[in-house]
Structures are given as structure tokens and as C-alpha cells.
Write a structure and sequence with these properties.
Blueprint: E1 3-6, E2 21-24, E3 27-33, H1 48-65, E4 73-80, H2 86-96, E5 103-108, E6 118-125
Parallel strand pairs: 4-5
Antiparallel strand pairs: 1-2, 2-3, 3-6, 4-6
Helix pairs in contact: 1-2
Length: about 130
């Protein structure tokens, strides 16, 4: 099955040798998004809710570039450097997704690129 890289200027450019997302058939696999502003490439860092909003805005931009929407996302992985941010990220996520919600895992990690406090990856099915 051929793979197609997904790229949009409405989300931050990759900071390594990877694509923002890759389509394989009707499935789109998203690379992890951290709270980078797509215009400046700088980390948005005011509080965890602001960071989470930037992450979900970036995911929305990539999903639209792939011909879908956040409603097509079936799985999300959330990586937090502090699980005490769990409730705040849940509250932000509730502003972006409706039931039936994507399947999800949330994992505490010791660090994320550029000092981010949250990173989110996803899988989307279109068609």
C-alpha cells in the first residue's frame, strides 16, 4: 500500500526526519504534536491549558490537510511531563472532541522536545 506524507503550513514543521502525518489507505497516522506556534516555530508556554489548546489546534490543522477533521480521529495518545495536568488537559480536550470520543491513553514521561509539558499523537480514519 503506498504511503502519502501529509504536510500543512497551518501546523508546525517537523523538527526532525519525520512527516506531520502519513496516510496509508484510509488511515492517517499523526506524529506527536507539541505546542509549537506554526508561524514562529516557538513553544507556546503560558500554562498547561494554553499548551494543550495549541496542540489540539495543530492536530486540527493536520487532520484538515489530510482531508478529515477531529471527528475522524479514532485514537489519541497524550504524553504529559506531570500527571497533575491530567484534569486540565481533559477539560481542553472536551472543547475539541464530542462523544463518541477517541480511544486514548495518557502517559507520564520524563521529558518532551523543547521543554513542552504535553504532546499528543493520533490515528484518524477517513473515507
Amino acid at each position: 500500500m503506498p504511503r502519502q506524507a501529509i504536510q500543512t503550513d497551518r501546523a508546525p514543521a517537523a523538527i526532525g526526519p519525520y512527516s506531520q502525518a502519513v496516510r496509508a489507505g484510509d488511515t492517517v497516522y499523526f506524529s506527536g504534536q507539541i505546542p509549537l506556534d506554526p508561524a514562529s516555530g516557538e513553544l507556546v508556554s503560558a500554562d498547561i491549558a494554553t499548551e494543550a489548546r495549541r496542540v489540539f489546534d495543530n492536530l486540527r490543522a493536520v487532520s484538515e490537510a489530510a482531508g478529515g477533521s477531529l471527528d475522524d480521529i479514532v485514537r489519541i495518545g497524550i504524553y504529559l511531563t506531570d500527571l497533575s495536568d491530567f484534569a486540565a488537559v481533559n477539560a481542553v480536550m472536551a472543547d475539541y472532541f464530542q462523544a463518541p470520543y477517541p480511544a486514548r491513553s495518557t502517559i507520564q514521561v520524563s521529558g518532551l522536545p523543547k521543554g513542552a509539558r504535553v504532546e499528543v499523537d493520533a490515528v484518524m480514519v477517513t473515507g
